[in-house]
Amino acid sequence: MDASAEIICVGTELLLGDILNSNAQYLAQQLAQLGIPHYYQTVVGDNSLRLQRAVAIACERSRLLLLTGGLGPTPDDLTVAALAEFFGVPLVERPELIADIEQKFAQRGRTMTANNRKQALLPAGAEVLPNQGGTAPGLIWEPRPGLLVMTFPGVPREMQAMWETTAAPYLEAKGWSSSIIHSRTLKFWGIGESSLAEKVAPFFELENPTVAPYAGGGEVKLRISARAASPEQAASLIAPIEAELRHITSVDCYGQDDDTLASVVVGLLKARQQTLSVAESCTGGGLGQMITAVPGSSSYFWGGIISYDNRIKENWLGVNPQTLATVGAVSAEVAEQMALGVRERMGTDWGLSITGIAGPDGGTAAKPVGLVYIGLADGSAVQSLERQFGGYGDRDWIRYISACSALDFLRRTLLDVFTPT
User: Fold this and answer.
1) CB 152 within 8 A of CB 137
2) Closest CA to 418 of 251, 233, 260
3) I want to staple 68 with a disulfide (CB 3.0 to 4.6 A). Which of 23, 148, 289, 389 is the partner?
4) What percentage of the chain exceeds 90 in pLDDT?
5) DSSP states of 140-188 as a string?
6) Which residues, including other chains, have CB under 8 Å from residue 250's CB and lie 6 or more apart?
7) What angle, 0 to 180 degrees and rounded to 10, lies between the N-to-C axes of helices 310-317 and 332-346?
8) Domain residue spans in the chain?
C-alpha cells in the first residue's frame, strides 16, 4: 500500500444535499499541493456503525485518513467516539481542552454547558489538533502502525485554519510530502469543450505535466499539473506547456486560475484608462453585478441602466420608437441603439448592451426563448452580436451566459485594438 490519503466526510446533511461538501474539495486540493496521493472520498451519515464500516474499508487501502464533521457537542456528533470504539481504545477527558472551551465561552459572554465536555474526550494516545476558531478540537492519532488519522470540524472556516496552521506542517515535517503537485488552470470562453479538445489533443498524452479538460458554467478549462520537488520546479515544467497552449488557442483563452471575464475586462479597461457603462434588458443588472464584483472596478465602470420597459429604452437610452415598432426590442438594431445611448448618457468610452428573451415565456417561432443580442459602441463604431442560448438551460442560465458573453465580446474587441504589455 502506498502512502495514500482518504477523505471521509461525516454528516447526514451532506447526504441529503442540504450542505455543499466544500470540505472534500478543499482537502483534495491541499493534498494535491503536498503531493500526497488521494484516491477515495466517502460521505457517511451520522451513524456510528456505518462510520465504522467506512473507516474499516479506508484502513484497507489508505494510510492517511482525514475526517471532517461530527465533532460537536450534540448526540449526532459521534466521530471521535466511533473511532475510539473501532480501534478499541478508551476515551479520555483532557483537562486542557475543558479549560480552552470554558475560556472561549467566557470570551463570548457565555457559560459552557455540560454537553460541551464531550468535545474534550479524545482517544487515549491521540494528540490534539488545535482549533483556534471554535470549540471542537481535532485529533492527530496513530491508532496502529502505518496509519495516521486526523479529524476536523465540519465548519469550513475552522477546518481550513486547522489544516493550514497545524495539519499541513505536521505532514510535511513527518515526510509525507516528498514532492508537490502544482497546477495552472487556463480558462476559455467562446469555444466548446470538444473543439478545444481537438485543438490540443496531443497534450492529453503527457505524463508530467499532465493536461486535463473540464467544462462547466459555460466555460472550458485546461488544468496543467506537474509533480516536482518544489513549486518552482513544477512551475518551470508547466511554463512551456502553458505557452504552447496559449499560442494554439489564442484569444479563446481569456485568463487563468482566479481570473474571471469581468476581472480581465476591468484589467483591459484599466490598461487603456477607458470607461464603461452598460444597458441591460433581459439580464436585469446581472452584467453590472459581475463587473462591480471586481475590486477597483468603480474607476472604470461608471454605471448602467436596466431598461425592461420600452419606454425606458426610448426615454433614457434614445432608442428610436420606430425601430421598436418595426423590428422589436429583441433585435440587433435595438441592441446597438442601447449601447450608443448608454454610452452617450453616461459619458463613457464604451457602451455595452444586452437585450433578449430569457424565458420561460415570451418566445415565438421567429424569436425563440434564448435569443439574445449584444451591442457594443465606442467613439468610432457600433456593432452587435446575435446568440441563441435556448435549449441549454433555464431562465437564470440564459441570463448568466448572456452577461458572460457580453463581457467576452468586449474583451475580444479590446484585444483587437490593444494588447497590454
Assistant:
1) no
2) 251
3) 23
4) 85
5) EEEEETTEEEEEE-S-HHHHHHHIIIIIHHHHHHTT--SSEEEEEEEEE
6) none
7) 40
8) 5-173, 180-256, 261-417
Closest Cα to residue 137, out of 108, 105, 94, 171? 94
The one-letter code for the residue type at 74 is: T
pLDDT value, residue 282: 94
Tell me the HSE value of 404 on the side-chain side, using a 13 A CA sphere: 18
Q: For position 398, what pLDDT does the model report?
A: 94
**Crossing angle for the helix pair 395-417 and 261-272, nearest 10 degrees?**
30
CA 32/CA 195 separation, integer angstroms: 28
Superfamily of domain 261-417: CinA-like (3.90.950.20)
Distance CA 51, CA 54 (A): 5
Residue 245's nearest CA partner among 190, 194, 196, 181 is 196
Q: d(Cα 418, Cα 267) in Å, to the nearest integer?
A: 12
At 104-145, the pLDDT tens digits run: 888 888 888 888 899 999 999 999 999 999 999 999 999 999
| 153, three cell numbers | 470540524
The residue assigned the cell 515544467 is 237
Neighbours of 292 (CB within 10 A): 16
Q: How would DSSP label each residue in 198-243?
A: HHTGGGGG-SSSEEEEEEETTEEEEEEEEEESSHHHHHHHHHHHHH
Confidence of residue 341 (pLDDT cuts 50, 70, 90): very high
pTM for the complete prediction?
0.78
Fold type of domain 5-173: Molybdenum Cofactor Biosythetic Enzyme; Chain A (3.40.980)
Q: CATH class for domain 180-256?
A: alpha beta
